[in-house]
Amino acid sequence: MKQIEVSRATMGRIPTYLKYLKSASHISENISATALAKQLGLGEVQVRKDLSSVSGAGRPKTGYNIKELIDTLEKFLYTDKNNNVVLVGAGKLGRALLDYRGFEDYGLKISAAFDIRCKDTDMSKLGKPIMPMESLDEFCRENNVRIGIITVPAEHAQEVCDRLISDGIRAIWCFAPCSLNVPDEVTVQYENMALSLAYLNKKIDFQQKDDIE
Question: In terms of residue numbers, what domain contains 68?
Answer without folding.
Answer: 8-77
